[in-house]
Write a structure and sequence with these properties.
By secondary structure, the protein is an alpha+beta fold. Helix content is 17%, strand content 23%. It contains five helices and eight strands; from the N terminus they run ααββαβββααβββ. Strands 1, 2, 3, 4, 5, 6, 7 and 8 form an eight-stranded antiparallel sheet that branches. Helix 4 packs across helix 5. The structure holds a DNA duplex (13 and 13 nucleotides).
DNA sequence: GTCGAGATTATCT
DNA sequence: GATAATCTCGACC
């Protein structure tokens, strides 16, 4: 009953919030809440990706079937599969026709922790349940079938932060291009924020047996 | 705590 | 066929 979590935003509210540049949306996402089924996450770390203007973005080279969602209207979820192992979840920004999104990198589980732990493994410490994009999506139970889903469709929902969070910013993690852009935002001191690790080139061309 | 390296598959050229 | 917005593990300090 004590619904300490803020109420889910209506469709117009979601659209108004996300219909802005990703760089403006990203810091304001910190402290907001994303819910999927029984699990709710409070975001602690995000990165901004600005499509055509950003060499590190999937949308940089134009629209493809996969990145179509990023070019669409704001308030939708873009999910992609990476390294053959993990899903990563983005929230689409800017108006229809502009490719921009925010990658959710870290969060703390505030509801449905038992469900999240079942998905991540019984012995997973709380701080690790949704630390890192792949883990965050796994804890939420979001996969590729959720790509293109709206944040107001009943399965997913989103609530703005009750108040602006203090934040720090720095270079994005693991990106090969435009590593000099400080487009990562996080809540300082939060244990669910991943430690910075520069992108590592996998220069094993031929992986011997 | 830090560091290095492998796993595995959708997507694009 | 090459690439990729990652994670986890083992070795070491």
């Amino acid at each position: 009953m004590s619904r300490s979590v803020t109420e889910a935003a209506s469709r117009p509210a979601v659209e108004a919030f996300f219909r802005r540049p990703a760089l403006q949306v990203a810091p304001e996402l910190l402290g907001s809440v994303v819910s999927h089924g029984p699990v709710s996450l409070r975001l602690t770390e995000v990165e901004a990706y600005c499509g055509l203007d950003d060499p590190a973005s999937h949308a940089y080279r134009g629209e493809t079937p996969r990145t179509k969602v990023m070019f669409g209207p704001p308030g939708y979820v873009y999910v992609y599969f990476v390294y053959g192992v993990h899903w990563a979840m983005n929230l689409v920004c800017e108006h229809d026709g502009v490719a921009a999104a925010c990658l959710l990198r870290g969060a703390e589980v505030i509801e449905g922790e038992d469900v999240a732990r079942q998905r991540r493994g019984e012995s997973t410490p709380s701080a690790r349940l949704a630390r890192g994009p792949g883990n965050l999506a796994a804890a939420l139970g979001v996969t590729g079938t959720d790509s293109g889903r709206a944040l107001w469709d009943g399965t997913l929902s989103w609530s703005p932060a009750p108040e602006p969070s203090a934040y720090e910013q720095g270079p994005r993690v693991g990106v090969a291009a435009a590593a000099d852009r400080n487009w990562r935002f996080w809540i300082p001191g939060n244990p669910t924020v991943s430690a910075y690790r520069a992108h590592k080139r996998r220069h094993r061309g031929t992986r011997g047996r």
